[in-house]
Design a protein that fits this description.
The protein is α+β, with helices and mostly antiparallel strands. It has helices spanning 2-8, 12-15, 21-31, 37-46, 62-70, 126-140, 162-168, 214-227; strands spanning 58-59, 80-86, 94-103, 106-112, 120-123, 145-152, 181-186, 189-194, 204-211, 231-237. The chain has a five-stranded antiparallel sheet with strand order 1-2-3-4-5. Helix 3 (21-31) packs across helix 5 (62-70). It comes from Myxococcus llanfairpwllgwyngyllgogerychwyrndrobwllllantysiliogogogochensis.
Length: 238
């Protein structure tokens, strides 16, 4: 994960700042359980500042998390831990870890109002959320040519069927992902796939693809279609 972020996000190494061990311990005491290993890594590297990876209205800093609990904006809960404060007053959906859904040394990221009960799941792990965001913002959005759409498979874990095809096209998977997410990269192109956990999206996932050459993008999608591992529905091309 560290290697992916440092090579993808310009200036990150100079601008990210981690929270102090004592601050991280305070967050863990509020959680009432050991923090997921990935979240501990995140706080140790970006718990004070995410640098250019920062979200416009979401504050992931450990100090903000602690302040929200100190001000009783959020109450301690054995299932949920606030990990990002949303400053948009029109839709104040803060991000929480759902400890009822731990996975791969991490946990599901869901959103809700500070004391609300209705959940809107975001990503199966914080790791996937950050990696997906970095590749989307700093690779795909800046690519000369992009396209997007949806993929449909026969089973909920159909994304795994893409792996050998993408590998044959020279793509690597920078981090391990689950059935709702796939990240593929090579020097001239990037593809990200994402579905929402627990939302009843079935066997369909959204995708974005970006690269230097429109012919390369057509070949990638053509190979996936020829392999018949997914059904592709295009949404837009640029």
């Amino acid at each position: 994960m560290e290697s992916l972020l440092l090579r993808t996000v310009p200036g990150l190494a100079e601008q990210w700042r981690g929270a102090s061990p004592s601050t991280i311990e305070k967050v863990e005491r509020i959680a009432g359980r050991p923090l997921p290993p990935f979240y501990r890594w995140f706080l140790g590297h970006m718990g004070q500042s995410m640098g250019p990876l920062a979200y416009p209205t979401l504050d992931f800093s450990a100090e903000r998390v602690l302040a929200c609990y100190a001000q009783a904006l959020v109450k301690p809960d054995p299932r949920f831990l606030l990990i990002a404060y949303e400053s948009d007053e029109m839709m104040p959906l803060h991000l929480f870890y759902d400890f009822k859904a731990p996975v791969r040394n991490d946990a599901m990221v869901t959103s809700r109002e500070a004391r609300g009960k209705e959940l809107t799941d975001a990503f199966e792990t914080l790791r996937e959320m950050l990696a997906w965001g970095a590749l989307s913002l700093f690779r795909i959005d800046r690519a000369p040519h992009t396209c997007s759409g949806s993929l449909k498979g026969d089973t909920p874990d159909f994304l795994m069927n893409l792996d050998p095809v993408m590998s044959s096209l020279g793509f690597d998977q920078p981090i391990p992902t689950g059935p709702f997410c796939r990240l593929y990269e090579r020097p001239d192109a990037v593809m990200v796939c994402m579905g929402t956990p627990r939302a009843g999206t079935g066997n369909r996932r959204a995708f974005d693809l970006g690269g230097n050459n429109p012919g390369s993008l057509r070949r990638i999608l053509g190979e996936l279609a020829s392999a018949r591992v997914v059904e592709i529905q295009m949404k837009k091309q640029a």
